[in-house]
Design goal:
By secondary structure, this protein is α+β, with helices and mostly antiparallel strands. It is 52% helix and 8% strand. It is built from 21 helices and 13 strands. The longest helix is centred in the last third of the chain and has 39 residues.
């Protein structure tokens, strides 16, 4: 064997082992992501709180000009908006997939990109990926996903890639770099304003961090810092333009309990913190504290200021911003992905195995819980959709919802400490009738979106509304009594849509969850029922301005 062969064989062997290691890592990443996303395979419509409302809007975008009843109730209005992620992606997928399937693909893509974006940012900061970013799968089922805040989550995933790209190109020529990333920043703005804001905060804080000398910012690099901010100008101009379509300007910090909920939002997949969520949060917090104190968890220095800035903004964020509810959970949900990207965990092989096993056990419990509960919700959703054929196409549908009684809160196959039946999941269930029956619902997301209500429905539209309570229904059942009620706007300035429900709506969905109504207006005629709801036709004299189609 000559010298060349002697030298080349170990090099080739090392290269083969390295390639095999990379392939194994890629296979594990794909395998764990597929396992985490598997609950999406067992449902037609993921039971995420706002999701049916978003899906109904996409249905209108795709089929609004084809179905006359949809056209009579809604208008498509594409415009400059900072909240278009799902609208754009699902609409582009709709030629090859049904809207429902495209919606599930969008949810899966959002979750997968959060993991991939964490790995991409980790590589930009550390020069390699490794196993540590894979821990991001533990934070996929979070409060933002539960509430169906998919546009902001998708924008968060894209932000991770954008920020990674900004860091990876730090040695590139300034002018082409700023021009290229002005396109990226503008795209982030179009996906969701939160993603753009998070990107802007991260870039500015990162640039400040790498320019700090001791505790002072060197003035000679201040100009370069300002130049890096030029990339935000096109998006800021578009944001100013979009404000003419904006709705409520309400800002509210909310009660202390909302801040406590935001604290556990990265691991909470409910409308409150369940024992399982608390256990996961505690295990993660204790593990992070232990490895940090032992020096096993290292934060890359240039990310100290960005993470500090995110923590401060998380604490200062109001609960409601411009009428957008639960604004204070968005950044806490994003933080674990950034922290995992910015840190490196150094453990022995035996400890790594134990930690990986414990992490997989937590993920398996979460996937089991979600799969079990989603199967039940999918059955209930399907039950309503089957009964909704009793609703005339294009009708106006009002909704009454009662709380789920304690005796019906247990989910089959799940202990109470893991999950229960939650009222919030049913809040937008009725929007599926937009897809199946082209009905009008008063609280479909309109205004600062791509869909508006038709002029004939404008007076009974309340985009930030929800189902009536039985008391509200009974109080306004008599049209003459309803006339005497003074319309009191809510905290967002919206007048309640249900004040004249007996005259302005055609059908009523009453989700009673087995409760017998104390008093049911005699104008309601039962046309269909299910295990937790009844559908009534509202009997009244036909009036051309409300009943003619």
């Amino acid at each position: 064997m000559d010298l060349a062969q002697t030298v080349s064989r170990p090099v080739l062997l090392a290269g083969s082992l390295l390639a095999a290691g990379k392939l194994a890592r890629i296979a594990v990443y794909f395998g764990l992501c597929a396992f985490a996303l598997s609950p999406l395979l067992w449902v037609r419509v993921p039971p995420l709180v706002d999701y049916p409302n978003h899906l109904a809007r996409i249905w209108i975008l795709v089929h609004g000009t084809e179905i006359p009843d949809l056209l009579a109730n809604y208008q498509i209005h594409w415009r400059v908006l900072p909240d278009l992620a799902m609208d754009l992606v699902v609409s582009m997928l709709s030629p090859v997939l049904s809207v429902e399937d495209a919606g599930r693909v969008f949810v899966a893509l959002t979750m997968a990109l959060l993991v991939a974006g964490t790995a991409a940012l980790h590589r930009a900061l550390h020069g390699h990926v490794g196993w540590w970013p894979l821990a991001s799968v533990l934070f996929l089922y979070n409060a933002s996903l539960f509430w169906g805040f998919l546009n902001s989550l998708f924008a968060t995933a894209v932000y991770l890639f954008a920020f990674a790209g900004w860091i990876a190109t730090r040695d590139a020529r300034p002018v082409p770099r700023i021009l290229a990333f002005s396109v990226v920043a503008t795209a982030l703005f179009s996906l969701h304003l939160f993603g753009f804001g998070l990107y802007g905060l991260s870039v500015v804080a990162y640039e400040v961090g790498i320019r700090l000398e001791g505790r002072r910012l060197r003035w000679r690099s201040f100009g370069a810092l300002l130049a890096s901010c030029l990339q935000f100008i096109p998006a800021l101009v578009l944001w100013h333009v979009s404000l003419q379509h904006a709705g409520s300007t309400l800002i509210d910090y909310g009660a202390l309990r909302f801040k406590l909920y935001a604290l556990v939002a990265p691991v909470t997949f409910h409308d409150r913190c369940f024992p399982l969520d608390a256990a996961i949060w505690l295990i993660v917090a204790l593990f992070a504290f232990y490895v940090w104190r032992r020096g096993m968890l290292r934060l890359i220095p240039e990310m100290r200021i960005p993470l500090s800035a995110m923590a401060v903004v998380s604490i200062a964020m109001p609960h409601v911003v411009s009428g957008s509810w639960l604004a204070d959970i968005r950044l806490p949900v994003a933080l674990p992905f950034v922290v995992l990207a910015a840190t490196r965990l150094d453990l022995s092989r035996s400890r790594t195995f134990v930690v990986a096993l414990a992490g997989f056990a937590m993920l398996a419990v979460r996937v089991w819980m979600v799969s079990q509960s989603w199967a039940d919700y999918d059955r209930w959703f399907g039950e309503f959709r089957a009964a909704a054929v009793a609703i005339a196409p294009g009708a106006r549908l009002a909704v009454v919802a009662e709380p789920v009684p304690p005796e019906r809160q247990t989910l089959p196959g799940l202990p109470a400490g893991v999950a229960t039946v939650e009222d919030a999941v049913f809040q937008h269930l009725s929007l599926l009738a937009v897809i199946d029956r082209a009905v009008f619902l008063p609280y479909i997301f309109t205004g600062w979106t791509t869909v508006d209500v038709a002029p004939r429905n404008a007076a009974i539209s309340q985009p930030s509304g929800g189902p009536m309570t039985p008391a509200e229904l009974t109080m306004t059942a008599d049209p003459e009594t309803a006339k005497s009620l003074v319309p009191i706007p809510d905290m967002r300035g919206q007048v309640p849509y249900w004040r004249n429900w007996s005259k302005t709506f055609d059908y009523l969905l009453w989700m009673d969850f087995g409760n017998t109504p104390q008093a049911k207006p005699n104008t309601l005629q039962l046309v269909a029922s299910g295990s937790y709801f009844k559908i009534y036709r509202i009997a009244r004299a036909m009036r051309p301005e409300t009943d003619g189609r």
